[in-house]
Amino acid sequence: MSILTQSQEGSSHLMMGNEAIVRGAIEAGISVAAGYPGTPSSEIIDTFSKISTDIYSEWSVNEKVAMEVAAAGSFAGLRSMAVMKQPGLNVAADFLMHLALSGIRAGMVLLAADDPGALSSINEGETRLYSRLMEIPMLEPGNFQEAKDMTKWAFELSEELGIIVLVRTVTRLSHASGNVILGEIIPQNKTAFFKHDGDMLDPMEGLIMTPPVSVKHSAQQEKLKKAATLFETSPFNTYEGPDNPELIIITSSICDLYSKEAVDLIGLTDRVGVFKLGTTWPLPTALVETILNKTEKILFVEEVQPFVEDNVKSFAAGLGNSLSRTQFFGKQSNHIPMIGELNPDLVVDALLSLFDLEYEAVPASYTQKTRAIVGKGVPPREISFCPGCPHRASYFSINKVLKLDNRQGFVCGDIGCYSMGMLPGGFFTLQTLHSMG
Prior knowledge:
Elements: E1 12-16, H1 17-27, E2 32-35, H2 42-51, E3 56-59, H3 63-75, E4 80-85, H4 86-102, E5 108-114, H5 128-134, E6 138-139, H6 144-161, E7 165-170, H7 171-174, E8 177-181, H8 213-231, E9 238-240, E10 247-252, H9 255-265, E11 272-277, H10 285-292, E12 297-301, H11 307-317, E13 327-329, H12 344-355, H13 364-377, H14 390-405, E14 411-412, E15 430-432
Helix pairs in contact: 1-2, 1-6, 3-4, 9-12
């Protein structure tokens, strides 16, 4: 029996981030989980299918279908989750736009796993932008304990507001491991029943639909306002540092750990504070204003798009002269890269620049020497298919047929493991590589 399904409230266990997410969903009483495979999210549905017999889990034909399956569960009174990586949310966006407007019944969570740096993806798209576009609440866990606790709370929040909640994770959280303290598993009604004979405009007992759009849109925005109010006192928004720091780092997700490590490495704990936003959208504006009033220098640390940076600066602009002396640094000022994933060293570099300090963690000569030694004993290994994967044989056959045909045929690629058909392991078969389908 898996520890993920056992009670053992208060005990601590080592878990991968994706396992912690599964545990959080189980503690919330999830009944339906549907997704489409893609790193770094794949282990979530895999784990559900392996460990539980009373949770319906499926690999759907695509992400849109996965979200529809999860929505069906919610409509029938079952807590549900749709799971996908960042490109998949583009596929599911059409249905998500309507679902956000119509509302849901039982708690429903959209788990989107981003891949900054595109370690296993063909783009490093941003799912955070969808929270604003779709007008839905978004949570971002910053460590493994939060991956569990925040997922559990997301179901409760969704049910309280009557709207789908986006939980966004990233590769370094999903695939790394850390200690997680287990909580109580909340028993839920597992009987599905779709009630639809109530008042036409009552989404809980009548029809679930988007019309009348203006009425539903107004209700949706009221839900966001309520979410913002709840976020003001959320324990997932944390501040660590002096009362009146010279600079505050505003961050989110796994970048919270990078920021704290960087501040500690260069001995700035008495000069720099770190404010982590766990409830990233909508902004808890009163809390953010309190943080902004603590200092005159703000550094935003986040991966890929300047989502938090843009939202906080936009809010600050509306405050007028009260923050006229505040300086903002981040991606727009080129202190933080606009592309790729971050790490503590990149945050250190930004702080050194802002404080005019010098710091060298490891001498360059040491790095060069170790690379030279390691390079002699480690043979080069190109990325390729797993042993026994049928794609390699397929590409071999395709190449053979094209040569026999001899009419300059070409092969258009698709995402997934078979994208390696562009590489030596796939015999350089593919000439294009874009999105699914």
